[in-house]
Design brief:
heterodimer, A: 240 residues, alpha+beta, 4-stranded mixed β-sheet, 10 helices, 4 strands, B: 244 residues, 57% helix
Chain lengths: 240, 244
Amino acid sequence: MVLELYLDLLSQPCRAIYIFAKKNGIPFQMHTVDLRKGEHLSDAFAQVNPVKKVPAMKDNDFTLSESVAILLYLTHKYKVPDHWYPQDLQARARVDEYLAWQHTTLRRSCLRALWHKVMFPVFLGEQVPSETLAATLAELDVNLRVLEDKFLQDKAFLVGPHISLADLVAITEVMHPIGGGCPVFEGHPKLAAWYHRVETVVGKELFREANEVILKVKDSAPVNLIIKQKVMPRVLAMIQ
Amino acid sequence: MGLKLYLDLLSQPCRAVYIFAKKNGIPFQLHTVDLLKGQHVSEQFLQLNCQRKVPVLKDGNFVLTESSAILIYLSSKYQVADHWYPADLQARARVHEYLGWHTDNIRGIFGVPLWTKVLGPLIGTQIPEEKVERNRKNMFESLQRLEEKFFGDGTFLTGYQVTVADLMCLEELMQPVALGYNLFEGRPQLTAWRARVEAFLGANLCQQAHGRILSIQEQAAKNALPVPYPEVQSRMMLRIARIP
């Protein structure tokens, strides 16, 4: 049976997995789990991932959650080109380092930026105090600076001359505030150049396809009130 | 120029790295970076890690941060026993699945009691009771989820042998335990798991690794802890502000 991926391209880690699988020609059946409709909270999806989060993967009897776990599983199983997750010990460690760092820093601040700027007012119908938004955007800027100064520096890609899992995860992270209309590259010219390089290597068509949902996020329909009740506690926990 | 590890055993991820290196007989030079004395904000340490965090690994000219990256690097370089970070596709995936889940559900939550009981008061800051209570609730809910998700198949978190996942988890849980929280009471599965991990590591190694955190509250009570200087205090205040 073909690999099954449970994704919502609204989600940063889902986009990374989608791009990775498509780019590497990994055959999969896509199951869209619409987060804005609360589909992740269904009993059916709980059978796949009891934690009720996307992304999730099912490879025959083997189900797996957590995006880094899924990306590495796909990397090893499908023997993708070395540059994605190099055999070289130190180069690989750099990818691991980025994947570990991003989780509570860049991913979190990109998520908060999108939710505070767009999802709360547009989707949830909740006002966000301007000081809160300002603090979130300031924190995002700090993390973008670390991305630029610690990870990218003067290299073409985050860990060296070639694209890796680190770049995929990072680019899908920054698409969140970009979709939210934040001027992510203002004051970060190196990141802007890096973004274009990643887009070129991924391929403009695949890049556009993967980002279609996030780029239209400002047009999200207001949430159904019953769903709002169900998702609100999880949203608040997620962006804490 | 051998392997150097920059650690403060007050820190959960530092303990995981320390225990891993010691248990596997990996030769290293320990550089203690005393967080309370602000050694992590020194110019010297800043050169090593601009993020001012521990643990840090230095192998020749190669500097590496992030505990899970360090553990994986050491596993591969020193060719430790396979069970720590299994080569098997699915077994390894389970380790990474735990590490991802750990970041959202354990990290950041179990470290809070050290702040509320020792570090906050050390700099004259009382964390509101409401936050202490919320943290207690968050910890207990996380433990519930931990048991539900990872205590199914196997005697350890991701299978039948100890992996780096067990180390990372144990060291996080040790933090509130050292501060007097009885996380294991009424949790036989968790208690049994802890006993198995500690038996595997050995009492001496556990004592060595846990000594500092286990004595911290007593030291604070005796006023034996260094009072952090202003630059460190302002960084501590930022961390305290993030306690939900």
